[in-house]
Amino acid sequence: MLYQIFIDPFAQMVDMPDFLIQVVWEGFVAGILYALIALGFVLIFKASGVFNFAQGIMVVFAGLTLVGLHEAGVPAFLALILAIGVMALLAVAVERFVMRPLVNQPEIILLMSTIGMTYFLIGFGEFVFGGEPKQMITEELGLPTGSTAFEIGEQGLVILQHIDIAAAVIAIIMVASLALFFNKTRIGRALRAVADDHQAAQSVGISLNQIWAIVWFAAGIVALATGIMWGARSDVSFALEIVALKALPVLILGGFTSIPGAIVGGLIIGIGEKIGEIYWGPLVGGGIESWLAYMIALVFLLFRPQGLFGERIIERV
């Protein structure tokens, strides 16, 4: 048994390096998409100090909006623009009817409000778009399809899906853009000020209403990009909300306020769960991919609860 746990998986990696590369690539792509979902959580948390439980359903809702508009006869790129407009309207509605009435309330109240938003968007989305899975308009948006195969050694073969490569490139661009936005722009600095202290930010003339609308819109754009990429790899359905919960261990690893942490945490979870499922999963009957991420997060909570890039909070009494 010890041989099967500690030696055999590594022997398989050495014997079949091409298969190991394929597994790592699949985990890398999954990790990039987890990181995109986590980015939406980070944006909201940095601006309001509350965990946005609705980010997962926002991914689904944005994807369904895009596909639903196209099915109604709207050209693909016009549907994309209109979907961005819908996420902007959602951001304004959240600020006006949820965030503004609850300003300076305890964080648990804001958390409960995002849970309420989740179920509202689920019901509204099913009412408007139905509950059936929908196919993402990948080709209509100009996203690449097909695959490229690379030979590794004499008989090894690694296959890369073009949509996975596009997803990785788009995610990297979005992460870099958001990092620059937060660190180099006036609005980004205002967002960080609001996250540190609402009342202090208001005292120096920063509008909470404007900042919250902007950050929810940014989270909506991230949700739309994530919905497109996840939908291109599978169908767009409400089951994606469950996938979005993988952002929780990603945030625990990377830190709730760190954009670089979201990408690093996503890669750790994505690659870790793929390798665990392939090489150690058969020892327990498979299926560990669904819970391994949470076990990794639990270990981090025990030894570094602020995450790899999170800020250590020290209270002096």
Textual characterization of the structure:
The protein has 317 residues and is mainly alpha-helical. The protein has a single domain, classed as ABC transporter involved in vitamin B12 uptake, BtuC (Orthogonal Bundle). The chain contains 14 helices and two strands, in the order H-H-H-H-H-H-E-E-H-H-H-H-H-H-H-H. A two-stranded antiparallel ribbon has the order 1-2. Helix 3 runs antiparallel to helix 10 (208-233), helix 7 crosses helix 8 (186-196) and helix 8 (186-196) crosses helix 10.
Q: Name the shape in a single word.
A: globular
Radius of gyration, in Å, reads 21 Å
The number of helices is 14
Strand order of the largest sheet: 1-2
Strand content: under 5%
Distance between the termini: 50 Å
The top level CATH class name: Mainly Alpha
Largest sheet: 2 strands, antiparallel
Q: Within the CATH hierarchy, at the fold level, what is the topology?
A: ABC transporter involved in vitamin B12 uptake, BtuC
SS-derived structural category: mainly alpha
Mean pLDDT: 85
Overall number of structural domains: 1
Quantity of strands, as a count: 2
Regions with little confidence, pLDDT below 50 for 5+ residues? none
Transmembrane segments: 20-43, 50-70, 76-97, 109-129, 159-182, 211-230, 250-271, 283-303
Main location: membrane
Membrane topology: Multi-pass membrane protein
Keywords: Amino-acid transport, Cell membrane, Membrane, Transmembrane, Transmembrane helix, Transport
